[in-house]
Model the fold of this input.
Amino acid sequence: MSAVPATWMRGGTSKCWVFRRADLDVPGRTLDATLLGLFGSPDPRQLDGVGGATSTTSKAVILSPSHRPGIDVEYTFAQVGIDEAKVDWGSNCGNCSAVVAPFALRQGWVTPTGTTTRVRVLNTNTGQVMVQDVPTRDGVLDETPTTTIPGVAGPGPRVDLGFVSPAGRSTGALFPTGSPADTLVAADVSVTASLVDAGAPVVVVRATDLGITARETPAQLDARPDLLATLDAIRRAGAVAMGLAESPAAAERAVPKLALVAAPDAGELAAGADLVVRMLSMGRVHPALPITGSVALTLAARETGTVVSGLLPDASDPVDGLSMLTPAGLVTTTYSHEQGEPVVSAVRTYRRLVEGSIELPAVASATPERPRAIA
Done:
């Protein structure tokens, strides 16, 4: 066996294993094979590896210091398949992004500056530049748990995470079809959808068009395989329309995501919600909200004719951000400009869970275990 150094961290509402890029260069193995071996895939339980058997816990963050001008750290995200021997490299994870700046500071790749240190990060999956502001004190990272976010039980160290000019990072345009709304036909269903590329590609549909409210719990929606199959068919049709796949069957499981949205009722509006959201990730309903998906919804809210803007209450002001009611609570983004570039930001927290190494199983032909005869 080979031991691979790794750090297990919570970033936002996800958990991910964090690796230095050079540590994943294992002789005789591809990067995909190494990750699958470490995570214990394919196996629905990921029993023989460190994967958590859910889409929010089977994630890898791969980091290295950058030599590009204006970039401190290069970050590659891997969504490791659970019951499939497949690694998806087509997207970014906004929640896991929150671990990048703290890890880089602890590695000495970035020098702390004052009470707050800014780390500029390039996500290599999408070409997205992120700015991450973290507290520092006396020349070191300050990991005091001061902040709480929806979906996480306790407080954690704060990360202010901003996506710089996020529109069109995967397809080249905020609306890859050229329209703020399109008609998708899939699984004998015809729906109006906004196909948005910002932060991550997202197919946005009204929940009511599919006979639901977007207030169902993730467990309630996940318990309806017929609905999940229909939603996945719509998502795959959106992938083709966005130019992300040549056919529905060729669409990745993680890209695009699909968001079910609804207008807030009077009580939700009074609580500060602009929009009610349930978002799917890897075929299941996310327990909170992918932050990359929240970026797409934020920019969609700013454009007339989208499914999102059509649901916003008259009193809401999408110019400065969006407050989304999720299964975990209210997730809020802000919209601003920095040096002439638009930035969509969200507050995340993180926590280091484990520092150590993971044993990589040897490649061998498996022999089924048979009971021994007992004399």
